[in-house]
Each structure stands twice: as C-alpha cells, then as structure tokens.
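Subject: Protein record for review, amino acid sequence with backbone structure tokens
How to read it: Take the token row as a discrete description of the fold.
Enclosed: The protein record, placed directly beneath this head.
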Amino acid sequence: MPEKQRSFVGKWITSERFCDLSPVNVFHRQLDVRARPAVEPILQNRHVLFRRQFELPAAACTEIFITADDYYKLYVNGVFVNQGPTASYAFHYWYNRIDLSAYVRPGRNTIAVHTYYQGLVNRVWVSGDSQHGLLLDVVADGQVVLGSDETFRQHEHTGFLAAGKAGYDTQFLERYDANAPEVGFEQPGFDDSSWRPACVRKLAPYRVFEQPSRQLEFEDVAPAAMTRHGNTVRVDFGGIYVGSLKLRVRGRPGDEVVMRFGQELNDDGSARHRLRANCVYEEYLVLSGHWDALNQFDYKSFRHVDLELPAGAELDEASVALAARHYPFALRAACRYRDEASQAIWKLCVDTLHYGVQEVIQDCMEREKGYYLGDGCYSLLTFCLLNRDFALCEKFFDDFLRTSFINRGLMTCYGCSMMQEIAEYPLIMMALLLAYSSQTGNLDFIRPRFAAFADILDFYREQYAESDGLLSHLDKWCVVEWPRNMRDGYDVDLTEGKVCRVKHNVINAYYIGAVKCLNKIAGQLGLAPCGDAEALQKAFAEAFYLPGQSAFRDSVESDHVSLAGNAIAYFFELFPDPAAGKQTILAMVREKRLTQSLFFVTFPLFCGLLRDGEGELVHDLLTDRNAWLNMLGEGATRTFEGWSRDLKWNTSLFHLTLSYGAAFLTDWDIPATFNFRT
C-alpha cells in the first residue's frame, strides 16, 4: 500500500511535565536484561486534555490530521469523533485522517482532545519512554486553518484516578471522579480560563505517516438482561465484547458505585471479576450529587457487570449500555457445510473476529492486548478470507518488518515496549506471505519487500546454523505449542529466558518450511532461491528421522516421537517417504485427535491433511465434541484460549487465535497454496 507522509503545520504539544524530557530507549534484545529501561512512576497514567476554539468559513470541506503519543480521543463541538492512533514506532508513526464535515459548522467551533500517556512497559503501546504529545492540523477547503501550538490550552484530568493494574501491567483500572473540575471539558461552553498554554516539545523525533488501516467502529450494546439483588444491579450483555460501560447515576457526593466486570458468572450468579486471564476487573465511579455519566478511557473485555450502588443512589437503567469497539467487518464468505455443528462453529469464529479485531490483530482482549506475529498470522489470514480484503495483511507485514531495527530476526510483538522474541514466529510469517501471494496475486506488493523477508532467513542462517545448515543454540524462545501440556511430551527444554542449546525438530521444520515458502515466491518473482531447501531437508532427515517408525524424533538427544515433531514436518513435506509420512500422521491423529495440539500445530496439520485429500477427516476434527464444540458447550460466545476454560491456568475467554476454525469451513485453495513438491 502506498505510504502517505505529511509535513504538519502544527507542532508536537504537551504539558510542562513532559515538554523537556528526552526519549528513553525501551528497545533491546529480550535476553539483554542490562538494557531494560527504568520507568518513571511519577509520569504514569497521565490524562492530558487540550482545547482550542477556531473559526471556519461557510460550507467548508473540513478534515483533521491528528496523532498523539500514546493515544487520543477527539471531540468536536462536544461530540466524540474518533480515537487513535494504532501503536507504532517514532520513526514511522501513524496519524489519522478524519472527515469532520458532520461535526463542524460555519463560524466558531471547539476542538477538545483527551490524550493519554500510560507509562507502563507492556504489549499495548510504545510507552515507558517518557514521550507524550499531540499533533494536529485542521484543514478546510485544502487550507490549514488550525495547527497544534501554544495557543491550545492544556490541563491534566484529575478525575481519572488509578485503581490498580490489570493483566500483565497492561492497563490502569479507573476510579472516575464525576466531581472533578475537568468533567465536561469537551463541551463548547466549558471554562478553560484557568488552564495553562500548551508547551511545544523540545524533542519530537517522529516521522509521521497516514495510518493505512481504517478507524474503529463503535456500537452501543443494550443489556440482554438486568436484575436487582438488593443494592446490586446485575447486567448481562448477552456475549463478550470489547469496550467500556456507559451509564447515568445520581447519588450523594463522594459516594462510590463499585463496578465489577466479568466474562462469566460465579456459582452464586455474580460477575466473575477475577478473570481466569489473571485480570481483576473492579472499577469505581465517584458521584458528584448530580446525574453523573460514567466516563471510561481504556477498554476491557466483558459480558457481565455487577453495579454495587451506594444507599439512596438512583440508576437510570435506560442509560446502561456496553460501548463496543471493533475494526470494520464485512462478511463476504460463507460456510461450505450445512450441518448444525459446522454452522455453530462458523458463527462462533465469525463473531469472534467481528467483535475481537481492534486496531490490530490481537491475541487476547484483556490479559496482554498484544499485537502478536505468530498466532496473529493465522487469525489475520482468517479475517482476510472472511472479508475478502487483505489490507490489514499488508500492514501486518510492514509492521513486523519494521521490528528489524531491534533485531534482524524480528520481534514477537509490534509497536510496544515489551521486548519478546519467539523463534518460530518470523518463520510462520513466510507461510502467511505465500498464502497472501496465492490469494491476491499481488506480486507488486511483495517485490520491493522481498529482500527484507529474505534477510530474516539470512539472520537465522548466520546466527544459528551449524555445518549441516540446521539451527541450534537459539537465543529466541521456541514455543513449539502452547500451553506446554499440549506439546505431546515434546522432549526438549524450552524454558523461556535462556538459550536452547539442543538441535531440535520443530524450529528446523519451520526454518526449512520458510525457505520453501520464500523460494516459491522467488520463483513467482523470477528471482534466485533463498536457500537450498533440498540439502536442508536431507540434513533434517539425517538428524531426526527414525526409519523403523517412519517418524521424526523431537531432537538429536532424544528418540521421543510427538505430534508436534511430525505435524510441522508433514505440512512442509519433509518426510523422506511422503506416503509413509501421511500414514504416520493419520495414525497419530486418529489416536490423539486434537488432545495434543492447539494453536501452532492444529493449523498446519489441517492444511497438510486438506492438501492430501483428507477433507472428511479435517471436518471430523473440526466438529469433534472436545474442540470448538466443547467451547460452545461451555457457553462460549467468542473463541477461548483453548478447547476448554480449564485447559490453561490463565485462559482468556476472548482469544482470537482459534477463530481460525472458520478458515477451514470456507473455500480457499489450500492444496495449490501449500504444495511444496513442485
């Protein structure tokens, strides 16, 4: 997709607290613990507001170009417009271009922006770097009529008080004080005369580009049920969504409404606000004595909420809604099976992607909110197949290629300050690239990026290849399958945080598969191969193949045979005898079904089986009562992080990865895409 860079008239503005700060470098290799930055707690959880009035000529065509670090919510003339940007790095920072025609009027207008600096090191934003600011231009009929500068007024919102943190330091929970003087700051009549002028940042090392993805959509979800139990109102929204709560309530000034959010219920019918995913979702609304509207800045993943009202408080039940947010979704695919089980699984997966994809493809909606490379390949491909639109896929490739400034072998999460490296993920991306090429035929997109993809394989070869070409001594974490109890006893120490010194099967199967995928694309582009896949495949068989069992062992130090150690090799056609290899896989699958595979083994396993004409078996596995149907049997409205709630110790009940079931229920040419014999 073409990149649009803008030279802003406006300046990066901020508050006195941030204007003189230098950027903190948060980027480093995962195992380089000495490079981990120290964060400044005094800077954390800062909600900085900006306001400005401006004049517009009559009947002007008006739009805004806007960005902020970490994030913004935009209001024009008291009305919420949108929010952003998608997280990114300063050297390639996103701005949003938004049409304001529906929000402005001739004459005086008011722009108000709620910005946020979180200050935590996590998978959500590039934060903890001491960088905050707002940048915008308002353009009318092609002319800049307003740019961010010192004429803007700024003030920190004192009504957003921290109430602990959720997830893996993912977000600050909120205690919203409806009596704070900044309440209503977005309204044109708000008195900001006591606010101070904005400060221009001394250092703003950004290069800004128009965000190629679309803005979020928002919809209010009405309660499916609402019941009273003493002073507690229990609300069920009928399914898990991503968003925030809306309500109006009146009570004595200083009294608090306690809000407990859950994805499921406790045995007593209350909202289970201590989520399986290790988030404790308890937040508060401090009342002013008037009718107060709850204002929540950050989002959560929930279905149920318990509202514990103070004595004498009145709840406007008609005002209660879940303000859901998600990426635009237009279903353009159909399920090719008509049986009841397939249709139910299809709906589960489609709804998960419809309501789960945010500004990026995340894995879980609560614990990490991370933009992950590996499992993101599978859920993103499914999203694109369902929408028949691969724009997010193109952004995905570009985003993760940019992480090469930290490590040529790429990082696990994009656009964040949490440094993690999982060895298989960049290699899995090569299979997604091949699927993209097959589905779109867009070699014009791939051609200028091909060298960057090839350099990833060069990095693996230079850093980890032994004399036979196979990889060993990886300082990136090899996950194989997750959680570890789904690895079928894979006999290698895969402890995160240390070098895996054993030459083992799965990472090499992915590596050879990545070479095969990129070689197929090189052939389409008329370029030389990226590696000698035939020699690597021969070395792989010599290292791992057990001829007497027609199976691959897990490592050069063990003769243990696992599903993981054979399914990836089967997908990339590494068996010396393909027919015998297929029979080995069929025997394993018929014995183990999906009890020893989940995120990373099931997808390539299904692809290999479909390529080899085993469509009935794949459908049988898809509709196995212990897989997706088990989620539904346990009340799932979105795909779980596992076949059941109890499979993991920290299960997310809104996790995108297993929505890829829909990819195998609709039509796409798997045999042609992943045929590595030609």
